[in-house]
Amino acid sequence: MVDRVASILELVARSENGLTLTAIARALAAPVSSVQGLINGLVAVGYLDERDRIYTLGTAPYLLNVIAGRPPVTSISHDQLERVHAETGLTITLSTSVGDDLFYVDHVSSDPHYAYLAENRVRRSLLRTSAGWLLLADRDQRDIWAYLNSRPSSDADFVERFLRSLDELENTGVCVAPGVAVEHADGVSVALRERGRTIATLGVVGIRETIVERQDELVEICLRYATKWGFR
C-alpha cells in the first residue's frame, strides 16, 4: 500500500495540470475502486488537492520540509517578507493550509507570540484568521460546506460571518479585519494566486485597533507586493 501511495504522489507531481482519478488508475494499471480510497485519504490530509475532479499535489509535502528545517521550496524569500515588515512595522506572515488547518510557513515579527506560532508550526483554525478565510474561500463549494458543517456549535457565529463575506472573498482575494481572532488580534491578508488558485496568503497581523485604523494602507501594501511578486 505504501508503494502505491508513493506512486500516486509521484504521478500527480509529474503531471503539468493534474490528473483525474481515471488517469491515475490507468497509469497504475489498477481498478479505479482500488485507488479511490487512497486518493480520498491523501486529499483529506493535504497531500493532494482536488478541484473539478482533477488532482494536484497539495501543500503537506512542502510543509514537511519546512518542519524538518530544510530550505522552503518557494519563490517568496524571507528577505521579501522583511521588506514588507519594514514598511508596515507589524508582524508579517506567509500562510498556507494543510487539510483543515492553517500554518504559518514563514514570518517576520518582533512579537514572541506570533514567532512561537510560526516557528513551532502550530495548527490554527481556518475560521479564526483572515488568512484562513481566504484559503477556505478558494475551495470548491462542496468542500466549503463540508468544512463548515463539521464545525462545533461554538463556531456558529464565525461560520455565519464567513458566509456573509464569502462572495467578496472570492471576488477580491482580500480579507480585512474579520474580527474572529483571539486575544484582541486581527489581520489583513491577500491571496497569493498561481494559475487561478490561492496557494498561500500574505498577511499583516497586529492589535485589532491598529489593523482597523490602518486597513486601507495595509491592503495597499500587501497587494502591491503580491502583484510585484507575480502572485495576483
What best-fitting shape do the alpha-carbon axes yield? globular
The residue fraction in helices comes out at 40-55%
For the largest sheet, list the strands in their spatial order. Answer: 5-4-3-8-7-6
Mean pLDDT across every amino acid position = 89
Low-confidence stretches: none
Pfam families: HTH_IclR, IclR_C
Keywords: DNA-binding, Transcription, Transcription regulation
Protein name: IclR family transcriptional regulator
GO molecular function, one term: DNA-binding transcription factor activity
Brief descriptors of the model:
232 residues, alpha+beta, Arc Repressor Mutant, subunit A, Beta-Lactamase, 2 domains, 11 helices, 50% helix, globular, Tscrpt_reg_IclR_C, DNA-binding transcription factor activity, IclR family transcriptional regulator
Q: Would you kindly provide a written description of the structure presented here, covering whatever features stand out?
A:
The protein has 232 residues and is α+β, with helices and mostly antiparallel strands. It has 2 domains: 2-58, Winged helix-like DNA-binding domain superfamily/Winged helix DNA-binding domain (Arc Repressor Mutant, subunit A), CATH 1.10.10.10; 62-228, 2-Layer Sandwich (Beta-Lactamase), CATH 3.30.450.40. 50% of the residues lie in helices and 22% in strands. It has helices spanning 2-14, 21-28, 32-44, 60-67, 78-88, 112-119, 130-137, 141-149, 156-172, 208-213, 215-228, and strands spanning 48-51, 54-57, 91-98, 101-108, 124-125, 174-176, 185-194, 197-207. The strands form 2 sheets. A 6-stranded antiparallel sheet has the order 5-4-3-8-7-6, sandwiched between helices. α2 packs across α3 (32-44). The chain is globular, with a radius of gyration of 18 Å. 34% of the residues are buried. The mean pLDDT is 89. Residues 53-232 form the IclR-ED domain. Pfam families: HTH_IclR (PF09339), IclR_C (PF01614). It comes from Rhodococcus pyridinivorans SB3094.
